[in-house]
Amino acid sequence: MWLLDAHTAYLSSDAPVVTPFATTFEIDEVLAYDVRVLRRWVADRGIGTLEIKKRAIDVDPAELRRRLKPKGRASATLILARTTAGTVAIAAHRLGR
User: Fold this and answer.
1) 85 DSSP 8-state letter
2) What is the pLDDT of residues 10-58, one digit of tens each?
3) Which residues pair with 53 in a beta bridge?
């Protein structure tokens, strides 16, 4: 496993790692961290329930959720993460704990 950013405790790997110390997510898409891009992504997928996880990024998840205007039956998780290439929004789903 490796860190997405040297200063943030988000780890990544090429294969799922099951551990009692972390929740494992599988990445579905990596998106630009841009409200317009994310709003469109939420609308196109009919997402009504949106979990937003973040670490070391100056954003209020509740405020961002309001700005993304989720409506619909689908659910999704967005992980906002700093990476060596900049901040991204990772669309993911839980694999287990």
Assistant:
1) T
2) 888 898 888 888 889 999 999 999 999 999 999 999 999 999 999 889 9
3) 79
